[in-house]
Amino acid sequence: MIAVCLVGYFVFHAVQGERGLLAYLRLQQDLAQAKAVQSELAAQRKEMEHRVSLLRPDSLDPDMLEEQARHVLNFARPNEVVIFLKEPKDTATAD
Q: Pfam families given for it (predicted)?
């Protein structure tokens, strides 16, 4: 009887314990979510780096320069339609 209880105790902790099978599965799920977030952030960073590279003096893209000047100076041509989009409130702006 003692052996059965002892085996049951260890089996229970192997499944339910702090380092058991269920904890391992939760950790794997958290890791998968973190990898998804990391890949999304890496894609956003790559896009931002590309946009910054278009504004470098050695490879200045006239269209990107015009887009940024219009955005900063708040200009538009008379025949253009301007659509204002709400920006997220947590966006930090550097002035």
A: DivIC (PF04977)
